[in-house]
Amino acid sequence: MTAPHDPPKAAASHDPPEGAGPYDPGLAAAQEALVRAMAAGGPMPAGFDAGAVRAAADGILLKRAGEVARAWPALAASFGTSWRGAFTAWARERPVRGSFRDGWDFARAHRDGLDPAAARELALAEVRWSYDGTAPPRRRRAAVRRVPGGFALQVLGRVGEVATAGARRAMV
User: In this structure, are residues 138 and 150 in contact, taking their beta carbons and an 8 Å threshold?
Assistant: First the structure.
């Protein structure tokens, strides 16, 4: 499973880069509104072609679904051919948080309908990471989670699974 990566910290200054034109607060506000409309379900800003903005937003959502599918392959596979439609419908009104967190949030929202492989993938993420749905995930020192057919245990970075129906053990 892929570990989340924190984006680089944004510069605190709104000063234009050297050699750039003067800073235009109106243009910056329009650009911010456009990005919100395309990536986070924000309202359509005035002066933009609504059809073009929706097409760009749909492209961003499809790209996002592909990135989440790479980070959460069992989750995406559990939805089969309906993955893109299910994920984009869910993500349309939610801000981008990165593929790891987006997949985790989606999996939690659909926890009751996950197949065993996707439920296992979610449980293994939850045994490795502490995540409250808002703050970035943090590594856990120790945890236990149910997985289909048993339990996943994590102690000091080592993860193991114990089957409840037998004595099978596997290290992940």
Answer: no
Q: Residue 150: beta bridge partners?
A: 147, 163
The reported pTM is: 0.69
For the chain, list the strands marked E by DSSP. 129-130, 138-139, 142-147, 150-155, 158-163, 169-171
Q: Which helix (H) or strand (E) holds 172?
A: none
Between strands 150-155 and 169-171, the pairing is unpaired
- pLDDT tens digits, 40-71: 677 777 888 888 888 888 888 999 999 999 99
Would you give the end-to-end CA distance of the chain in angstroms?
10
* CA distance linking residue 128 with residue 143, whole number of Å: 7
